[in-house]
Amino acid sequence: MNLPYKRVVITGLGALTPLGNTIPTFWDGLINGVAGADFIKQFDVTKFKTKFACELKGFNPEDYFERKEARKLDRFSQLALVAADEAVKHSGLLDSDVDKDRVGVIWGSGIGGMITFIEEMKNFNSGDGTPRFNPFFIPKLILDIAPGHISMKYGFRGPNFATVSACASSTNAIIDALNYIRMGKADAIICGGSEAVVTEAGIGGFNAMKALSERNDDPKTASRPFDLDRDGFVLGEGSGALVMEEYEHAKRRGANIIIEVAGGGLSADAYHLTAPHPEGLGAYNVMRSALADAGMVPEDIDYINVHGTSTPLGDISEIAAIQRVFGEHAYNLNISSTKSMTGHLLGAAGAIEAIASILAATNDIIPPTINHFTDDPSFDPRLNFTFHKAQKKTVRAALSNTFGFGGHNASVIFKKYSE
Amino acid sequence: MSEIANRVKKIIVDKLGVDESEVTPEASFTNDLGADSLDTVELIMEFEKEFNISIPDEQAETITTVGQAVAYLEEHVK
């Protein structure tokens, strides 16, 4: 055992989101309150209840991959490689003398290669029953192939696997990376998540659960967390990547330290397939365990990037849990749901919201909750939801919540770096 | 070049992302054209689809060069 725990910092970030295809453009979209939703372009939505989503803008795989290479990658892996590359370059890891046996990749996705699965099954079903499956079908489909690809691209031979907990998947990846590095099992880990399920099955499946907004007359305002008229989440696609590194290792190689990862918490609702616990018990437990893991008290947190998906029940139980954990301090901190802008990136949500939280803390700017029209009396009016516009605020530490179908909860805390 | 050879070349250029000039009869899929084991399986499948035939596995394993593929197809495609 290597005790005590080692400190863990972030030295690189990458993002491919409905607001922007790089970290600077993503942040620019966030602080300017840009709505990422629009009518779906990836398939014919004529017969679908929901006709819009937060798709990537101007993402062309051939700008990043040779055609032969792109063909062997499901879209979720393409997005993973693009965001990971921005983060790896940002970290300067490849310019340093690092031991690649001690650099890992831990990557989350909610679903994995759904597009590949749909294409192959369409192909099979249109034939005479003869199985003519493409040899790349399985290696394109499986969720763990994304971290596999990232490792192969850079030769990172440390711990390598995928995390799956629906919409909490990439927060799980971050917390696993934190713990492995803390315990001395790796010097650095590329972590994050990607999701690409703006497909017939993705929209149709979530529609069947009545999980999606159906505000087809006004897609841009459909994601409206905490608004009285919220009617479900808006599906998003994209990817977020973070280079997490052991503090002394980062210092030794003269890396630019962006922020410190203070701690993470995990819990389960143990309640229902898709509905949140009505009093937010799992959400309460997960924030308490993140604070305890970070050795922090509620008063240390200045910003909460909430899960806040814009569903009628989820928003209420999360806020109930926040008020129970933070008490009077809940009125001092800023709360915002960046899903109002990005939509819900499912397994990539944790990664891009971790990045939003980190950038909020490093810039002392809170990205807003846009699309607020009518107050919901379920919410305490003394809470600051950062409606409409970004707000300036000194952020010592930020907490990011993610909750997944299945009742999986994961929260992570980032604190401003100081030696 | 035969019509079959032309269609084979087109598939190889498309799937392996190589230049047409590299696709010579002697060229080995794995040694010269950068194919891995999965690419090779995919190529055989594409030949089957293009020429509407079925190539048994034991035959497929003997097809390792462009020339061998063309020869096999010229013999078996009606």
TrEMBL record, chain A:
Keywords: Acyltransferase, Fatty acid biosynthesis, Fatty acid metabolism, Lipid biosynthesis, Lipid metabolism, Transferase. It comes from the Bacteria. CDD domains: KAS_I_II (cd00834). Its EC number is 2.3.1.179. It is an enzyme of class 2 (transferase). One of its GO terms (biological process) is fatty acid biosynthetic process. Pathway: Lipid metabolism; fatty acid biosynthesis. The active site is at C167. It catalyses: (9Z)-hexadecenoyl-[ACP] + malonyl-[ACP] + H(+) = 3-oxo-(11Z)-octadecenoyl-[ACP] + holo-[ACP] + CO2; a fatty acyl-[ACP] + malonyl-[ACP] + H(+) = a 3-oxoacyl-[ACP] + holo-[ACP] + CO2. Residues 5-416 form the Ketosynthase family 3 (KS3) domain. Transmembrane segments: none annotated. Pfam families: ketoacyl-synt, Ketoacyl-synt_C. GO terms for cellular component: cytosol. GO terms for molecular function: 3-oxoacyl-[acyl-carrier-protein] synthase activity. Belongs to the thiolase-like superfamily. Beta-ketoacyl-ACP synthases family. Involved in the type II fatty acid elongation cycle. Catalyzes the elongation of a wide range of acyl-ACP by the addition of two carbons from malonyl-ACP to an acyl acceptor. Can efficiently catalyze the conversion of palmitoleoyl-ACP (cis-hexadec-9-enoyl-ACP) to cis-vaccenoyl-ACP (cis-octadec-11-enoyl-ACP), an essential step in the thermal regulation of fatty acid composition. This is 3-oxoacyl-[acyl-carrier-protein] synthase 2. It comes from Flavipsychrobacter stenotrophus.
From TrEMBL, chain B:
The keyword RNA-binding does not apply. Keywords: Cytoplasm, Fatty acid biosynthesis, Fatty acid metabolism, Lipid biosynthesis, Lipid metabolism, Phosphopantetheine, Phosphoprotein. Pathway: Lipid metabolism; fatty acid biosynthesis. It is found in: Cytoplasm. PROSITE patterns: CARRIER, PHOSPHOPANTETHEINE. 4'-phosphopantetheine is transferred from CoA to a specific serine of apo-ACP by AcpS. This modification is essential for activity because fatty acids are bound in thioester linkage to the sulfhydryl of the prosthetic group. PANTHER family: ACYL CARRIER PROTEIN, CARRIER DOMAIN-CONTAINING PROTEIN. Belongs to the acyl carrier protein (ACP) family. This is Acyl carrier protein. It comes from Flavipsychrobacter stenotrophus. The gene is acpP.
